[in-house]
Each structure stands twice: as C-alpha cells, then as structure tokens.
Amino acid sequence: MTAVVLSLAAIGFVFAVLAWVLKAGSTLEIVISALMLACLTAVGIILLAGDGVTGWREGWWNVLLLLAGGLAVTGGGPLTTSVLALVDRGNTRAQSTQKAGEVLRGGALIGALERGAIYASIVAGFPEGLAIVLAIKGLARYPELRSPDQPASVTPQAVAERFIIGTFTSVLWSVACAGLVLSR
User: Which of 11, 142, 158, 176 could crosslink 100 through cysteines, CB 3.0-4.6 Å?
Assistant: First the structure.
C-alpha cells in the first residue's frame, strides 16, 4: 500500500508541474488538472480504506509529507485556473474571470504562498493558521476588490467572483493535500 500511495502522489505531483507549463485555462490544462485531482482522490481513498499512514516507517511518511506539500503548492494553481476557465464558458468578455485576473495581479504567486501556508499550518496542527492566511489575503485584496478605477472591460462582479472562486478552490485543494498526511 505504501508504494501505491507514494507512486500516485508522485504522479499527481508530476501532473501538477506539467500543468504549470501549459496555457492557463486550456483544455489540456483542464484534463491534466483532472488527472491530478484523480491521483489525489485515489490516494485519499486508499488511505481511508486502509489504516492511513499508521505503521509507516518515518522515512516513507516524510516522503508523503513532502510530496503532498509540493502537490498542495504546485497543483492548486492549475486546478484554480481550470476551474475559472470552466466557470467562464458562456460568459461575455466583461464577465470573464480571466479578464478580471488583470485587476487581481500576482494571483499565481499569492496563491502558491497561500497554499503553502495553509498546508503547513494544518500539518503542524495549527488550523487557526487558515483563518489568519484568509484574513491577510482578504484585507490585502480589499482595495483592489472595491477600487472604482477598474477597467471598463471587466465588471466588479467578475473581479469578486474570481477572488472568491480562486480562493475557495485553492484553499480546498491545500486542505485536501494536508488531509493525506493527517491520516497518521
């Protein structure tokens, strides 16, 4: 079981890295993100069906800890852009969450830092860290969300939707990755 779990986690991490190279919101990125999500789901099911990581040698548990952390940080970006691309299907350009990304610049780096902080705080047994990270992000982004100087090519609702959908997707992904190592 240990080899299967670690292999699936490693494959998911490879998919995450590969998805970063692809064009954001492309069909291929969406497919790769779905495969990455499938790997994480399979690992979760295997761990839930068995005894989790109970009885694992410390070294193997540490490998899973690092793989899940890497997957949390790298996989959340492509997954989030895939979800936003799926949300945008059928929207006008002004309602596009992709266009709203021009207002919320730095989202990829902020998201990676957010996912890393959330993963670390949950794995470290400090779930309150999630509230701290989200409070800092919300306060830091508030001026951009309420700015009257937004370009006419994007609606304020699209900017707010991008922020909410992106944050929820990113947070849920990092919490799910942290859940793998919490089966200890």
Answer: 158
The pair of three-digit structure tokens given for residue 136, joined into one six-digit string: 């800092």
Distance between CA atoms of 30 and 106, rounded to whole angstroms? Answer: 21
Quick one: DSSP state of residue 38?
H
Please name which of 83, 71, 73 lies closest in space to residue 29, comparing C-alpha atoms: 83
Q: Where are the alpha helices (DSSP H) in the chain?
A: 2-21, 27-49, 58-88, 97-100, 107-123, 128-146, 156-181
- Please give the Cα distance from 68 to 176 (Å, whole number): 9
Are 76 and 174 in contact by the 8 Å Cβ rule? The answer is: yes
Token digits of residue 153: 């090519």
Exposure of 141 in the CB half-sphere (CA atoms within 13 A): 23
> What average pLDDT does the structure give for the chain?
84
